[in-house]
Specification:
The longest helix has 15 residues. A hairpin with a 2-residue loop joins β3 and β4. The protein is about 40% helix and about 10% strand. By secondary structure, it is mainly α. The protein has two domains: about 130 residues, P-loop containing nucleotide triphosphate hydrolases (Rossmann fold, 3-Layer(aba) Sandwich), CATH 3.40.50; about 110 residues, 3-Layer(aba) Sandwich (Cytidine Deaminase, domain 2), CATH 3.40.140. The protein contains eleven helices and five strands; from the N terminus they run αααβαααβααββααβα. The strands form two sheets. Strands 4-3-5 form a three-stranded antiparallel sheet. Strands 1-2 form a two-stranded parallel ribbon. α2 runs parallel beside α3.
């Protein structure tokens, strides 16, 4: 496939299938373009790409090939040497370029011992080098606030607020028209639907602000906000700021 579709074809197809919330181990990387594609994909999604070069002595590899007895494998050490020479470098830009891949390796692991020893080496490397990125609490709650904002029905701006206490969410709110009335995006707010300039016709706006809704939702359910924190996706207005202060946030 590399010869017909280019050296990066396999990596490009694979990158489209990688989910952002998982860690992956990818083997048989055989061209530096594949390394570039996978590394760029990881970095663009906030992840870390580590290229691990696993190698063993030629004689050991040959003994393992003979032991598995697969059709088409080299039958002599000389055949294996010739095959690996072709795979390590070629004038064909689409062919395998293992020497270039090895040169870009971030880590190296020897596989000259038993399978059990190799597995232990891999597990030790994972424990030492695999990065588990976790957001801090502020980033965590702000991320949730951005999701809450997607529920807003305001046609001018989507804003959300999340109220927490002792690292627990106790109330959320997003901007929009009051409970039981026509949604803003369905014509419920004349000011927003007329796209009035900022700061004008405020007395006609029927949308409640996100901070206001988060605070009143807590009051509606009899939940105290005293001593909590509020995360907002937009700077609160003066009225909401006064409500935040008086709510004990």
């Amino acid at each position: 496939m590399r010869r017909h579709a280019g050296p990066g074809a396999l990596a490009q197809g694979l990158a489209k299938q990688l989910l952002p919330d998982r860690n992956y181990a990818i083997d048989s990387i055989r061209h530096p373009v594949e390394v570039e594609i996978l590394r760029a994909h990881a970095e663009s999604s906030g992840h870390v790409f580590n290229l691990v070069w696993v190698d063993s002595k030629l004689e050991i590899r040959f003994d393992r090939i003979v032991a598995r007895g697969r059709s088409g494998d080299p039958t002599t050490l000389a055949e294996l040497e010739a095959l690996e020479a072709r795979e390590r470098g070629s004038e064909d830009p689409n062919a395998q370029q293992l020497d270039a891949v090895e040169a870009g390796a971030d880590f190296r692991i020897a596989n000259d011992d038993s399978l059990e020893a190799f597995q232990e080496s891999i597990q030790a490397w994972v424990r030492q080098n695999l990065a588990f990125a976790r957001p801090d609490w502020d980033d965590y709650f702000m991320g949730i606030a951005r999701v809450v904002a997607s529920r807003s029905n305001c046609v001018k701006r989507k804003v959300a607020a999340v109220v927490t206490l002792e690292k627990r969410i106790i109330s959320t709110g997003y901007n929009g028209t009051p409970r039981g009335t026509t949604n803003c995006n369905e014509g419920g707010c004349p000011r927003c639907n007329d796209l009035a300039p900022g700061g004008t016709r405020l007395d006609e706006c029927l949308c409640s602000h996100a901070e206001e809704n988060a605070i009143t939702q807590a009051a509606y359910h009899g939940v105290s906000l005293k001593g909590g924190s509020i995360y907002t996706t937009f700077s609160p207005c003066l009225q909401c700021t006064k409500m935040i202060i008086n709510a004990g946030l």
